[in-house]
Specification:
Blueprint lengths: L6 E5 L9 E6 L4 E6 L5 H11 L3 E4 L2 E4 H13 L1 H10 L4 E7 L1 H14 L3 H4 L6 E6 L7 H6 L4 E6 L9 H12 L3 H7 L2 H14 L4 H12 L16 H13 L12 E10 L8 E9 L20 H13 L6 H4 L2
Parallel strand pairs: 3-6, 6-7, 7-8, 8-9
Antiparallel strand pairs: 1-2, 2-3, 4-5, 9-10
Helix pairs in contact: 2-4, 9-10
Protein name: Triacylglycerol lipase
Keywords: Hydrolase
Organism: Rhizophora mucronata (Asiatic mangrove)
């Protein structure tokens, strides 16, 4: 954590296409840090991404998220001078761009943009630039996600919805919900569990009104013998795949976007042999290849809490604690 005296600039309030941010110095690690804040609430972020994810722009021949690309360009235009001055004053320091959620996506795209510039244009070498994003949403094409793997890192917490959230994944979730055998599920599962699943589904697909309404009606009239007219029998995987292929062929399925760079996936584990009746919770960190895409939204009770900064901090501290002599630099260097 940076000391207050090492924070050179702090902009708390956000504006259109420009979230809050800070510029600071980490003398111990020899870093100039640009930290970019994410959206205030996860629900705002869901709205932002769903409403604008169909707007894509081309960057160096690759597709990117329109709003995120514009925000990255703002920093490239208006804060590059401050960053250059800091690097000139602190010789031998590197530039680290960091952010959570939407801020992580902006930091990643900004790093990609800086890497495309020459030393003459920037006033410093692009080789010193790297980015780390936590809970970054899908914002780049697969090709761009793979091409930035050497200098962009994305950390994903287990069931976090945001790295899985895109127009394409919502379309898949809509099909999955409509094809679920809800009658069979209610017969087999505890009702509270089913209601929890329905509640999470309604939160995630609030923009897909027909699905949300049908789920709400189903929950409301569960004791009535006459149910709303929607599929109560699940289709086979083959039929489901055919449905997706038809939507993709007709152009109704949005283009896939991916989380950028190399992915570190935080997985929660339970040690049942630890003597406790519930077991002891611990976390492990798994490295995934660039371009890995979380195509399916996981409807669990943790889809929102796993997105929070505190959840990432707690889990990463647990991971680091289990590595002899390791620190965060060893993992996210």
């Amino acid at each position: 954590m940076l000391r207050e005296s090492n924070v050179l600039k702090y902009v708390k309030d956000s504006s259109v296409m420009r979230p809050g941010y800070y510029i600071g110095i980490d003398p111990r690690k020899k870093l100039i840090i640009l930290g970019i804040r994410g959206t205030h609430t996860v629900y705002d972020l869901i709205t932002d991404i769903v409403s604008s994810s169909i707007e894509e722009v081309t960057f160096e021949g690759y597709s990117t998220h329109f709003g995120i690309a514009e925000a990255a360009r703002w920093f490239l235009t208006y804060e590059i001078g401050t960053i250059r001055t800091c690097l000139e004053k602190h010789e031998g320091f590197r530039l680290r761009l960091v952010g959570h959620s939407l801020g992580g996506a902006i930091a990643s795209l900004l790093a990609i943009m800086l890497k495309k510039k020459s030393s003459e244009e920037l006033g410093f070498s692009p080789e010193i630039v790297s980015a780390v994003g936590y809970a970054t949403p899908p914002c780049v094409s697969k090709g761009l996600a793979e091409s930035c793997s050497d200098f962009v890192t994305t950390v994903v917490m287990q069931d976090d919805i945001v790295p899985r959230l895109s127009a394409a994944s919502l379309a898949r979730l809509r099909i999955e919900i409509l094809q679920t055998d809800w009658m069979s599920l209610i017969e087999k599962e505890d009702w509270k569990s089913v209601m929890g699943l329905v509640t999470n589904a309604k939160q995630v697909v609030s923009s897909v009104q027909d699905v949300a309404h049908k789920l709400a009606d189903y929950a409301k009239f569960r004791s009535v013998k006459s149910f709303p007219a929607f599929p109560l029998k699940s289709k086979s995987k083959t039929e489901n795949a055919v449905s997706l292929e038809k939507e993709e062929a007709t152009g109704t399925m949005p283009e896939e976007l991916f989380v950028p760079g190399t992915i570190y996936y935080i997985k929660k584990n339970i040690d049942t042999n630890a003597g406790s009746s519930r077991g002891i919770e611990f976390y492990t960190l798994w490295r995934s290849p660039p371009g890995e895409h979380f195509q399916r939204i996981v409807l669990s009770s943790k889809i929102i809490s796993d997105h929070k900064c505190d959840s990432h901090q707690h889990a990463l501290r647990d991971v680091i604690k289990g590595l002899p002599g390791a620190n965060d630099n060893d993992i996210l260097k």
